[in-house]
Amino acid sequence: MSPTTPSRRSVPRALPVLALLAVCAVTACSGQDSPSAPPAATPAASAENAGAELHMIENDGHRLAFYVMRGDSSTIVLDSGGGESSSQWKDIVPRLHAATRATVITYDRAGLGKSDVVPGPWKVESAVGDLKAGLKQLGVTKDVILVSHSQGGEIANHLAQDNPEMLSGAVLVDANLPQFFTDEQIPRLVAAGRPAVDAAKKDPAKPENRQLIATAEGFAAAHRAFHEVTWPGSVPVTVIVSEKTPFDGSPVDARRWRDAAASFVQAAPNRKLVTAEGTSHDVPAERPDLVLQEIEDMFAAQH
Q1: Are strands 53-59 and 41-43 parallel, antiparallel or unpaired?
Q2: Terminal CA-CA length for the chain
Q3: Measured over all CA atoms, what is the biggest interatomic distance in the chain, rounded to whole angstroms?
Q4: Which residues contact 5 (CB under 8 A, 6 or more apart)?
Q5: Mind listing the pLDDT tens digit for each residue in 196-220?
Q6: The pTM is what?
Q7: Which CATH number is 10-301 given?
Q8: Cα distance between residue 155 and residue 148, in whole Å
Q9: Where does the AB hydrolase-1 domain lie (predicted)?
Q10: What number of other Cβ atoms are within 10 A of residue 237's Cβ?
Q11: Is residue 144 within 8 Å of 168, Cβ to Cβ?
């Protein structure tokens, strides 16, 4: 399948296969430095981000929308799945803020929500750079708890490998993990996703189609490289895996998805595996209470 982006709206919109490649949700927490001149804040115009301040962050020639719900010194950052804007977390953010009293941050990746479109193929290095730039400009530089859904798992793994000092913990929600993207699995994904990519190219102006096309470009090479990424042993992590997986119709792929999660967790003693029973890939929408509980548990363990 060509690069896919799993998420509750992207899957029905494009194809379940797409959900596989873009698993992501991110939470960052606590201990940030205060910037001397933070980006200007305005009330978020959208009801989906009610109660949050909108900060337009500039990085590498484009602007990104970060939404900040102020709390105590700790911070939780939520990173959405592939093809999803920050609105994926609209029902979870206020509950998480009330339960932890932390500052909660969500954001729109390039080309989604209020963030600028960046032409060309989707590159995880650029996505990591955008997230780091936004957090730095908001004063978040350490003690981050990262919670990522779907494609966000790729951003989380790269960020953790290269900047372990930023993270105090993570929760990966049915996320893309390096162990899944083997030399045997990648061609299966490319083949499965090709019809959806071809259909998307007929209407490339649609945001979801644009994201799918961008993810598909260079997918095989990018995910061969992703397979070599290593999560640092110093960062504790909880992995939530969906029971049905993004591959409910393919027993082979579903087993490999679950095996990848188990292999990831078994690599270090400070990792925990949780199965979201009865769920499809869209765990945040179908089991928000479970996601909230695991984030709260990780947050409490680090404070």
Answers
A1: antiparallel
A2: 41
A3: 53
A4: 14, 18, 19, 21, 22, 81, 82, 83, 150, 151, 211, 212, 215
A5: 999 999 999 887 788 889 999 999 9
A6: 0.85
A7: 3.40.50.1820
A8: 8
A9: 76-293
A10: 26
A11: yes
